[in-house]
Design goal:
By secondary structure, this protein is mostly helical. It has one domain. It contains 3 helices and 4 strands. A two-stranded antiparallel sheet has the order 1-3. Helix 1 (9-46) packs antiparallel against helix 2. The radius of gyration is 22 Å and the shape is elongated. The N and C termini lie far apart (67 Å).
């Protein structure tokens, strides 16, 4: 019978706290944009001489904000996969888990590492597609101005 790594109640509380904070920050950003979105748009186009540069900056910032989270998660998953391969065990020794988990060792752990690598590749592809779409929008906008 395999070993069981027991759940860490502190890790569960941290995860819930992080989720609540992220949700509140997202709601706050939406409220700010709804309240000040018109002013932002007016600022972007207020000075015809600088509108082109401001729109470029705005679209590049939006593209980066869309592509960076999946890239960050892909980098984390890739790093986790390397550590799992090295330890030949998942969850890693000392890693906090949110629920009781069966410890995977040997070939099963390597299979989990491959899953993490595939997910990292999919996220990297999604980030590249997002960056390409924003680049196309940006280049079409740039050509029309």
């Amino acid at each position: 019978m395999s070993a069981i790594q027991t759940a860490d109640p502190k890790a569960r509380r941290r995860a819930v706290r992080l989720l609540v904070i992220a949700t509140l920050l997202g709601a706050l950003l939406i409220m700010i944009f709804e309240r000040h979105g018109t002013a932002l748009f007016e600022w972007l186009i207020s000075d015809p001489g600088r509108a082109h540069g401001r729109l470029r900056m705005f679209f590049l910032l939006c593209g980066a904000l869309c592509a960076l989270p999946p890239l960050g998660l892909a980098a984390y998953l890739r790093s986790l996969a390397r550590r799992v391969r090295k330890a030949q065990r998942y969850p890693l020794p000392g890693q906090s888990v949110l629920r009781d988990m069966q410890v995977l060792e040997g070939e099963l752990a390597l299979g989990r590492a491959r899953t993490f690598e595939h997910l990292a590749a999919a996220l990297m592809s999604a980030a590249l597609v997002l960056a390409f779409v924003w680049w196309r929008i940006f280049s079409m906008l740039d050509a029309s101005l």
